[in-house]
Write a structure and sequence with these properties.
Length: 441
């Protein structure tokens, strides 16, 4: 590794699995990448990715104060040289954490162009750098994306902007980012509609905006096929922030949108814990629903704060919650192209390079513990057996006939009347199940 990267994290060796007796805080106690759990290695199950934006681009500011991190690669004069220095540090972190993937927005990695031609040139130059580093390190791209929310041109949205010229600029930016993702062998392409929503209905035509958004995604899907990009497009639901209302509100809303605009064949969802909470759902709710609807794609792993109503994007450390999430992920068959992207940021006071390491190491181990717990619960059928028993009536001949559409309302009602049905309520056994989960952690 070259000099600036080595200077930033010091002369550390990659973090290794050392077992639960280890005392070194920079070791994995549970994440043993080669350990086989439920038919796959932990690395194959978890498919961890480090995100570029929070870990290397965010300077530690908040609405009340500026940067606290003072990263050397944010304080140079030549933007392209700074981008290259940032890439050195980023790939050094990937190496130290021994994670298989990374993710980035176009403007995280490359200096933002003053126009689309310059944007294409800058992204291509960073792709040259990334291509070499991917080749050298074996770290792969989980997904790429375009930032269609930070620049002031996007203040009223990108695809949903009232000005079609903004739509056109966004199309230009997505084409560049999608083609870069393909060039770098990315497994998916993500679209988070950060400002695809509204601040006030007083100036908004929702029907137009939804039609624009649907058309935009259809164009992205067409282009994906045209260039032969194999991975799915992933929409990342979020109900608000920065807009008051975002159209990709939650998994259920996104499903309805994809169905209406005939996009289900090409688009799945990238679910984020903090976004689920903002929408009034639990993380496992969003995963279970995406599996039920057949649109589960990938995870942005982080956590919100129960006392704060915004997207705090903290590193996920709650093994109990993660166990329930992994239970649903494994039950659905696990990841295919998706993975666990650390869309999480260290706190404003976590100013040491080591804080970036501790954040990822802790969260990686939390996910590994959750995976082990979830696999054991599935093996013992801790939740699946009681769930199946609860719905067993539906597996009988009459239940199946109803579901298959072989009974009318009148036929069902006539039978219920003739047989004098008097069904008795049964316990939902919630506390028993909560105890079972607790005993599995
Ligand atoms: C913001 C989103 C964003 C996406 C990528 O809340 O989580 O970081 O993951 O654009
Ligand atoms: Ni995210
Ligand atoms: Ni987020």
């Amino acid at each position: 590794m070259n000099a600036p990267a080595t200077r930033f994290f010091g002369a550390l060796e990659p973090i290794r699995f050392q077992g639960t007796d280890a005392t070194d805080p920079l070791s994995y106690r549970w994440y043993d990448k080669n350990r086989v759990v439920a038919g796959r290695t932990m690395a194959e199950h978890l498919r961890f990715a480090v995100c570029y934006w929070h870990s290397f681009c965010w300077p530690g500011g908040d609405p009340f104060g500026g940067e606290t991190f003072l990263r050397p690669w944010m304080h140079g004069v030549d933007p392209m040289e700074m981008a290259k220095a940032k890439a050195d540090v980023a790939f050094d972190l990937f190496r130290l954490l021994d994670v298989p993937f990374f993710t980035f927005h176009d403007v995280d990695a490359a200096p933002e162009g003053a126009n689309l031609a310059e944007q294409a040139k800058n992204v291509a130059a960073i792709c040259d750098v990334f291509e070499k580093k991917i080749e050298e390190t074996g770290v792969k791209l989980l997904w790429g994306t375009a930032n269609l929310f930070s620049h002031r041109r996007y203040m009223a949205g990108a695809a949903t902007n009232p000005d079609p010229e903004v739509f056109a600029y966004a199309a230009g930016q997505v084409r560049i980012a999608l083609e870069a993702t393909k060039r770098l062998g990315g497994a998916n392409y993500v679209l988070w509609g950060g400002r695809e929503g509204y601040e006030t209905l007083l100036n908004t035509d929702m029907k137009r905006e939804l039609d624009q958004f649907g058309r935009f995604l259809a164009m992205v899907a067409e282009h994906k096929h045209k260039i032969g990009f194999d991975g799915p497009l992933l929409i990342e639901p979020k109900p608000r922030e920065p807009t008051k209302h975002q159209y990709d509100f939650d998994v259920a809303t996104v499903y309805g949108f994809l169905e209406r605009y005939d996009l289900l064949a090409d688009v799945k969802v990238n679910i984020e814990q903090n976004h689920a909470l903002l929408a009034g759902h639990s993380f496992e709710h969003e995963v279970m629903l995406a599996n039920a609807l057949g649109i589960f794609g990938s995870i942005d792993i982080n956590r919100g704060d129960a006392l704060l109503g915004w997207d705090t994007d903290q590193f996920a450390m709650d093994v109990g919650e993660l166990t329930l999430v992994f239970h649903e992920i494994l039950k659905g068959g696990g990841f295919t192209t998706g993975g666990m992207n650390f869309d999480a940021k260290i706190r404003r006071q976590s100013i040491d390079p080591a804080d970036l390491l501790h954040a990822h190491v802790g969260s990686i181990d939390a996910c590994a513990r959750a995976l082990l717990n979830a696999a054991a619960m599935l093996e013992k059928r801790t939740l699946t057996a009681p769930r199946e028993a609860r719905y067993a009536g539906w597996d009988g001949a009459e239940g199946q006939a109803i579901l298959a559409g072989k009974r009318s309302l009148a036929e069902v009602a006539d039978r219920a009347t003739a047989e004098g049905l008097d069904p008795q309520p049964r316990s939902g056994r919630q506390e028993f199940l909560e105890g079972e989960v607790m005993r599995s952690l």
